[in-house]
Specification:
2 copies of one chain form a homodimer.
Chain A (H helix, E strand, L loop, with lengths): L39 H16 L9 H8 L3 H8 L2 H9 L2 H7 L7 H16 L14 H22 L5 H22 L2 H5 L2 H17 L1
Keywords (chains A, B): DNA-binding, Transcription, Transcription regulation
Protein name (chains A, B): TetR family transcriptional regulator
Pfam families (chains A, B): TetR_C_16 (PF17920), TetR_N (PF00440)
């Protein structure tokens, strides 16, 4: 519910109704200050938030660079400067590689709690979510299948490789299921209780459920 | 993975890539037999599957009765005969009322396992899911907010009312989170392990996680 300065969640799928999606949304409120006042990382983050926002509402083929630029409050040439071309830009949204590194960055014994905390902190502080965009796969037809394939390999299989014991693949999918559901509840359903509870309270309640799949 | 005769999952969000979505999909394979050979309930179910399929890919305002009819393999007048008008038809997709009744139809002590089983059986046997369509709320702009409001009241609040002890609202949302995640993993990610595992195996592994929120 907090909206930190540059990383306001306006461009996130979690926040679809605060803006019409036409033209710069609340996330573009920084725009008048001009890109010169942002550092490159913040600008890239704003562009990626804009892409993710649009990716939750339109088939990828229908998303123009201009629409991304307007929503991010930057110029289209600036996007090209940072990302090369539209394909490279969308590749960032289609890949879960970097997200998985951060999501799984904890010792196995504490991984359940870490993953729950990471999802909640990402949504509240970065206005982004490491896994939620997979739910929009049906929108993107054949590209949705790429999204699925990436997700399974980069998140599911990578987690499974960390697990010992039988049925590691199934247990990894069930642990990821629990995380995905929390992402949906927080970011899409916007459940009033999960959105107002203390993050550590949710970590305490929900982390063990995830962990039970990992080390049981 | 099974495709029972009339209730094939073709019209479900879970199955977006088996069909282009243009014209009758695999779910319409029954069409040549003609509506006269179906009973009314099966026809209604086919129409609702078609609506749900399209609702996962297009803003509601862009979905025509003709597109629903084509996908369901029925005529538009037949849809009107069963549902009155387009608004009544979409109201069925926007409401979780009937789904919640079936989802929550178990004693509290066994509710976690029942809900997990219900989600999996619905996906595999009816080609539908009681809760999954909430994830497409961002597609539908202001109608998405109706979907959210309905979901919170009809599923979350109703479950919370069954719970005793502190933080019933938060615990209900966390239990529903776990279910939603399983729906997403099965229906959208199409995790190969959850899709091939025995349903009762998943119920045994995942049911207790849901139950822990309900009766802990």
């Amino acid at each position: 519910m907090t909206t930190p300065s540059v990383t306001a969640p306006a461009g996130h799928p979690a926040e679809p109704d605060r803006s019409t999606g036409a033209g710069p949304g609340p996330g573009a409120a920084e725009a008048p200050r001009g890109p010169a006042r942002r550092d490159a990382e913040a600008t890239k983050a704003a562009i990626l938030r804009a892409v993710r926002h649009l990716h939750a509402r339109h088939a990828q083929a229908d998303i123009t660079l201009k629409a991304v630029a307007e929503r991010a409050g930057v110029s289209a040439p600036l996007i090209l400067k940072y990302f090369g071309n539209k394909d490279t830009l969308f590749a960032q949204v289609m890949s879960f590689e970097e997200d998985a590194v951060a999501l799984l960055d904890a010792p196995l014994a504490d991984l359940g709690r870490h993953m729950v905390r990471h999802v909640l902190v990402s949504q509240t502080e970065q206005g982004a979510d490491p896994v939620l965009r997979i739910v929009f796969a049906p929108l993107h037809r054949e590209r949705g299948e790429t999204l699925r394939t990436n997700f399974r390999a980069q998140v599911g299989d990578r987690l499974a490789a960390r697990l010992s014991g039988p049925d590691a693949g199934l247990r990894a999918e069930l642990a990821v299921s629990a995380l995905l559901g929390l992402s949906v509840m927080f970011g899409i359903v916007r459940g009033p209780h999960v959105r107002t509870a203390d993050i550590e309270d949710i970590v305490e309640r929900y982390g063990p459920l995830v962990q039970a799949q990992l080390t049981s």
